[in-house]
């Protein structure tokens, strides 16, 4: 699957080393004469391919020999010492994703409009991004060096798209031959070396559901706790993905799958002590079934894959309403757990950050979200309006850009928002944070966030649920 939060891939040959993008003032790096644009090629004689290598090769060390290619073409050999734990004061270029070599039946890239911006066609398959951001890889084209690197640098956990443990089915889904689809030895190598795995299954009706799904989940669960969890998310078909081998996910299919998986979940909870296999929120919503309890999700191991997000939201929002109702009551924390944000991830600067919403006199505005989440959000917001006096309105935005059965909030585009601009009410509009690229103020259809703002008569804020809750609390 493509990942919206990483730098688009480039195909040109890359020069050795990692490029410095920022040198902190008065830092050790500045003292050494390092500058933006310089490339660190080696640390203590070992090649540096990216900032993960740099971190790994400098961790715990106090004496270094840096080989640096300066922007003016000079090569510097710098010997230095630092205090234990002293920061260099360096920021580096982001990792350029490695591309996958699959032809997955359901690949989202096939569901893009032809004129979609190039970064939407990036097929990343990168174990570094899996570790840093929780992107899934299939391991089908991973090299021996990459396998060794995962183990040597402890790039754990890894998120792996398994889809099916039956080799024929997996090969069919990935569009590769069985030899390439076979990751049994690779998985075992990682597991034997203490690397934790979170598995994903993109559920395609009539291909890897039913008995196939049961086999896959049982096979994966047999490796628990080394395979920590399995997420089952439904295939998403846009109006452009018209492959006849794919069948639409219907409400009836969702209900049947929930029933089947519930039996296994019960068994896993009894034998393993955890639910282990989690169905994506979308399956419950489409099936019109109740979202499982907080306990069901444990520590939300795959929340960023849309597994448990709704439960997490409902619980956080429930606490918020209580807090607003009785301002003096002690509310421990409204923080939404998000275990996939790895502490080692270097997050790009958020250029889309907004401020100033707190200064609104009243909370009278419109929240735009996807059609799937809108009824749930609307119900909660009405409760909030009733207790807080706010006048918030939730507006379900149809996804006309991708079409098909795409109705999640995160895939809404600039033109989808513009299409409902005449229906907004109040002093401001809130759009889902993840509809804006994390390192650039641009939406999925290529519209600049600033251009979107110009089309609305009131300010637009891109907030996630946590920020939205903080905004409400600031007002009460
Ligand atoms: S082809 Fe498969 S592995 Fe590659 S990006 Fe698409 S879905 Fe992911």
Determine Rg (CA atoms, Å): 24 Å
Number of E strands: 15
Number of domains: 3
Mean pLDDT: 88
At the first level of CATH, the class of the largest domain is Alpha Beta
Give the % helix: 25-40%
Contiguous low-pLDDT stretches (5 residues minimum) are 1-12, 329-360
CATH-wise, what's the superfamily of the largest domain? pyruvate-formate lyase- activating enzyme
Number of helices: 16
Q: Main beta sheet: strand number and arrangement?
A: 6 strands, antiparallel
Strand content: 15-25%
Which secondary-structure class do the elements indicate? alpha/beta
Distance between the termini: 41 Å
CATH architecture name of the largest domain: Alpha-Beta Horseshoe
Shape from CA axes?
globular
- What fold name goes in the CATH topology slot of the largest domain? pyruvate-formate lyase- activating enzyme
List the helices and strands and how they pair.
Elements: E1 18-23, H1 28-31, E2 39-43, E3 46-47, H2 51-58, E4 63-69, E5 75-81, E6 90-92, H3 127-133, E7 136-137, H4 144-152, E8 158-161, H5 167-174, H6 178-181, H7 184-192, E9 197-203, H8 210-221, E10 227-234, H9 251-272, E11 277-279, H10 281-287, H11 294-297, H12 309-325, E12 364-370, H13 374-388, E13 391-397, H14 414-419, E14 428-432, H15 449-454, E15 460-463, H16 465-475
Parallel strand pairs: 7-8, 8-9, 9-10, 10-11, 12-13, 12-14, 14-15
Antiparallel strand pairs: 1-2, 1-6, 2-3, 2-4, 4-5
Bound molecules: iron/sulfur cluster (SF4).
Report on this model:
The protein is an alpha/beta fold and 476 residues long. The protein has three domains: 14-92, Pdz3 Domain, CATH 2.30.42.10; 108-307, Alpha-Beta Horseshoe (pyruvate-formate lyase- activating enzyme), CATH 3.80.30; 343-474, no CATH class. Helices cover 31% and strands 16% of the residues. The protein contains 16 helices and 15 strands. The chain has helices spanning 28-31, 51-58, 127-133, 144-152, 167-174, 178-181, 184-192, 210-221, 251-272, 281-287, 294-297, 309-325, 374-388, 414-419, 449-454, 465-475; strands at residues 18-23, 39-43, 46-47, 63-69, 75-81, 90-92, 136-137, 158-161, 197-203, 227-234, 277-279, 364-370, 391-397, 428-432, 460-463. The strands form three sheets. Strands 1, 2, 3, 4, 5 and 6 form a six-stranded antiparallel β-sheet that branches. Strands 7-8-9-10-11 form a five-stranded parallel β-sheet. A four-stranded parallel β-sheet has the order 13-12-14-15. Helix 15 links the parallel strand 14 (428-432) and strand 15. Helix 9 crosses helix 10. The model is unreliable at 1-12 and 329-360 (pLDDT under 50). Bound molecules: iron/sulfur cluster. The site of iron/sulfur cluster has 10 residues, from loops.
């Amino acid at each position: 699957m493509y990942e919206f939060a990483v730098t688009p891939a480039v195909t040109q040959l890359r020069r050795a080393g990692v490029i410095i993008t920022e040198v902190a003032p008065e830092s050790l790096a500045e003292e050494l004469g390092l500058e933006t644009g310089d490339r660190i090629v080696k640390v203590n004689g070992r090649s540096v391919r990216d900032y993960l290598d740099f971190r790994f090769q400098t961790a715990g060390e106090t004496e270094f020999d840096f080989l640096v290619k300066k922007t003016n073409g000079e090569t510097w050999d710098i010997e230095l010492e630092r205090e234990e734990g002293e920061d260099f004061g360096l920021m580096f270029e982001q990792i350029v994703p490695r591309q996958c070599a699959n032809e997955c039946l359901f690949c989202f890239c096939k569901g893009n409009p032809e004129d979609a911006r190039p970064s939407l066609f990036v097929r990343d398959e990168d174990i570094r991004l899996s570790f840093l951001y929780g992107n899934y890889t299939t391991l089908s084209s991973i090299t021996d060096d990459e396998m060794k690197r995962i183990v040597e640098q402890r790039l754990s956990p890894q998120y792996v798209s398994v889809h099916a443990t039956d080799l024929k089915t997996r090969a069919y889904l990935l569009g590769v031959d069985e030899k390439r689809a076979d990751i049994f030895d690779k998985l075992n190598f990682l597991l034997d070396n203490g690397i934790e795995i979170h598995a994903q299954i993109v559920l395609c009706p009539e291909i890897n559901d039913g008995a196939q799904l049961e086999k896959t989940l049982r096979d994966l669960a047999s490796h628990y706790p080394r395979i920590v969890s399995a997420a089952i998310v439904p295939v998403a078909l846009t109006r452009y993905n018209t492959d006849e081998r794919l069948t639409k996910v219907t409400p009836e299919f969702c209900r049947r799958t929930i029933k089947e998986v519930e039996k296994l979940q019960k068994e896993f909870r009894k034998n393993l002590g955890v639910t282990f296999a989690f169905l994506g929120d979308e399956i419950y919503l489409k099936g019109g079934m109740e979202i499982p309890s907080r306990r069901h999700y444990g520590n939300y191991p795959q929340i960023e894959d849309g597994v448990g997000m709704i439960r997490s939201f409902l619980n956080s929002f429930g606490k918020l309403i209580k807090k607003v109702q009785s301002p003096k009551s002690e509310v421990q924390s409204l923080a939404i757990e998000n275990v996939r944000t790895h502490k080692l991830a270097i997050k790009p600067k958020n250029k889309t950050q907004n401020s100033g919403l707190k200064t609104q006199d009243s909370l009278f505005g419109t929240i735009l979200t996807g059609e799937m989440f809108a009824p749930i959000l609307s119900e909660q917001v009405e409760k909030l309006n009733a207790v807080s006096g706010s006048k918030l309105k939730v507006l379900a935005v149809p996804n006309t850009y991708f079409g098909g059965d795409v109705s999640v909030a995160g895939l809404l585009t600039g033109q989808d928002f513009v299409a409902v601009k005449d229906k907004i009410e109040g002093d401001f509009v809130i759009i889902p944070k993840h509809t804006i690229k994390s390192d650039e103020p641009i939406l999925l259809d290529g519209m600049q966030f600033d251009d979107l703002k110009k089309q609305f008569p009131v300010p637009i804020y891109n907030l996630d649920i946590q920020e939205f809750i903080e905004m409400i609390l600031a007002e009460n």
